[in-house]
Write a structure and sequence with these properties.
Blueprint (H helix, E strand, L loop, with lengths): L1 H11 L13 H26 L12 H18 L5 H33 L6 H23 L2 H8 L3 H8 L2
Helix pairs in contact: 1-3, 2-3, 4-5
């Protein structure tokens, strides 16, 4: 647990990465992201080699280096998008993120049933995987946009008032 706080401390600008309140420079964030990725890759290889079969022990969402990688990538993306006109797209997507989190299990179940019964019996090629994931993502985003445009449901799916969500998402 102390290592998670150390990674967050180093990548967030709370410590030696920079003065308090400032984000860490992109070089530090890239180093943290690449280090975490290397540890995950090496750990996955080692755990798989010793177990004799593929192991996802190091790729768990609760694992320290996955948390560190996620933090570093988030802060890196934020540092590149701050102050740009494209920040409007990020604002729109961030307004939809909570709703996507809530509806993604339904979208995954829907597309899994539809895909495997109507489209193809197996999702076994990279283009099919990409199309499958893209269908899930687009349906989550559009479904959340639709649900948040209904005034009584807006707060449930965005955590914001209807007026605030409309301003953020240009509804």
């Amino acid at each position: 647990m102390e290592l998670i706080w150390a990674v967050l401390w180093l990548t967030s600008g709370w410590g030696p990465a920079g003065p308090a309140g400032e984000a860490a420079p992109p070089g530090v964030l890239w180093a943290a992201a690449l280090t975490c990725f290397a540890v995950i890759a090496a750990g996955t290889w080692y755990a798989s080699a010793t177990a004799g079969s593929y192991s996802e022990v190091f790729k768990s969402y609760l694992h320290l280096f996955c948390a560190g990688l996620a933090c570093a990538l988030f802060l890196l993306a934020r540092s590149y998008w701050e102050g740009r006109e494209s920040g409007r797209a990020v604002t729109l997507l961030s307004g939809l993120s909570f709703g996507v989190y809530l509806v993604h299990p339904l979208a995954i179940e829907f597309w899994q049933r539809l895909w495997l019964t109507r489209i193809t019996p197996a999702v076994d090629t990279i283009p099919l995987h990409l199309a499958y994931y893209l269908a899930i993502l687009v349906s989550c985003l559009l479904g959340t946009l639709l649900l948040m445009s209904i005034k009584p449901l807006c707060w449930i799916f965005t955590g914001q008032s209807f007026a605030s969500a409309c301003r953020e998402c240009n509804l």
